[in-house]
Amino acid sequence: MSSANLEKRLLHKILVAANAPTGWPGWLIGSVALVPIAGFAGLWWLLIGNRGVLFLAVVLAAFTLADALVLVGLRRWRFSFGPVGPQLFTLEFLRLLTAVLAIPLAAWLGPAPAAMGVVIVNLGASLALVWGTFLEPQRLSLSHVTLTGDSWRQDAPPLRLLHISDLHVERFSRREARLVRMVREIAPDVILLTGDYLNLSYVDDPIAHAHARQVLAALSSDTAKPVYAVLGSPPVDRSSASLFDGLPIHLLRDEVATIELPVPSGAPSAQVARSQGGVAKSGQSNGRSQRNPGSKPRRLALLGLDCSHDPEQDAARLAAVVAQAPSDALRVLLYHSPELMPVAPNFDVNLYLCGHTHGGQVRLPFYGALLTSSKLGKRFDMGHYRSQATHLYVSRGVGLEGLGAPRVRFLCPPEITLVSIQGPEDGQEKDQ
Fold it and tell me: How much helix, strand and coil, in percent to the nearest 5, is found in the chain?
């Protein structure tokens, strides 16, 4: 699958460019970090004069040093493992931006108020950085979605689907250990994975591959609970297919897996049986007109698509995959990005599970996600949406963006999602 569509996007180009200092020695990183601070000091001196210039230069250098200590600490204490240089320069750029914006303020109110404003803003940023790197990325939570309606048998017990997206494994850290513990406690009927298994900084790193495989092996250790997966963004998952070799995980690549759902009398929960051969090729239907609206499905059709981030191309492949699905099955689309939501209702997709956006990873009050890396922008950035009969859930994901992006979450903690599908007892959908 070509990765060209994602690699053409501005955000990806910025991340790649910012990743250049990976592997630089510490002395070189420190020396280069002083250059823009000196440049800012010269600009202040030229426009404002010498009042406050030394103070601000020292303050910015101190905050940059504090950032470096935070980034080193994250690796030492196994919170995250991003390269120090790229993240440090990204953070330094943001700090310098606040200082440059203070220059007009200094010309208006004077150097002292402007300098204090720079200190206050950067102190707040440091507190947010500590929260967003050490604390919030570890707050992996379980979100709940309950779907009810006429498309599911009223006498069938709830089916519990656990959706996990965007692992972005760097190393087996505290977060991955918590994920494994949570999944074992939840004991879902089916586990569904929607891509991006490696961090973009470690796509070719053999240790990261081994640790990602360790996570996947732990998630699939209960062989009575079927696990299905699709690949994510091509630059991230270009070598991830090999992670599944020998594991009891069904990697779906533009194909359908049909799960039979017998409903034993008095059973407390659904018994999930794997379909013969995994891929259904009977009961073909290619659109709304061929489905029986009065059917009560006893089967789950998992529509697994590779993601190219070309919505037109991937929509055509979705049509081909839908044609393989049984007409009486509940259709669940597994696709890494929410970019197919505009067309998914045309194929009677009942549930569409994806990730990719990380919920923005950094969100601001009253504004939401700063960036989503989706062609749809913030239209489907996280959580539960509905269009016609199609329910979409966009996961905030488990891991963090790679390359030069700081390993930070803010107002957007990681999540896994338990989707319970039940009969039309009250005809309502619930989110938590």
Answer: 40, 20, 40
- 234 lies in the same domain as 321: yes
Please tell me the distance from the alpha carbon of residue 226 to that of residue 345, in angstroms, as a whole number. 26
pLDDT of residue 20: 85
CB 335 within 8 A of CB 306: no
73 pLDDT band (50/70/90 cuts)?
very high
**Phi, psi of 161, rounded to the nearest 5 degrees:** -105, 125
User: What is the pLDDT averaged over residues 120-145?
Assistant: 97
Q: Are residues 87 and 16 in the same domain?
A: yes
Give the residue among 268, 274, 295, 298 at the shortest CA–CA distance from 157. 268
User: Within a 13 Å sphere around the CA of 1, how many CA atoms are in the beta-carbon half?
Assistant: 27
Instruction: Indicate the length of the chain as a whole number.
Output: 432
**Residue carrying the six token digits 């379909």:** 275
Task: Report whether 24 contacts 85 (CB < 8 A).
Answer: yes
Q: Is the domain of 145 the same as that of 273?
A: yes
* pTM of the predicted protein model: 0.88
Give pLDDT tens digits for 166-218.
Answer: 999 999 999 999 999 999 999 999 999 999 999 999 999 999 999 999 999 99
Cβ–Cβ < 8 Å for 179, 216: no
pLDDT of 413 strictly over 90: yes
Q: Could you read off the pLDDT of 293-306 as tens digits, one per residue?
A: 444 557 899 999 99
What is the domain count for the chain? 2
Those residues whose C-beta lies under 8 Å from the C-beta of residue 72, and which sit 6 or more positions away, are 84
> Is 90 exceeded by the pLDDT of residue 276?
no
Q: What pLDDT, on the 0 to 100 scale, is given for residue 432?
A: 61
Whether residues 82 and 204 fall in one domain: no
DSSP assignment, residue 131?
I
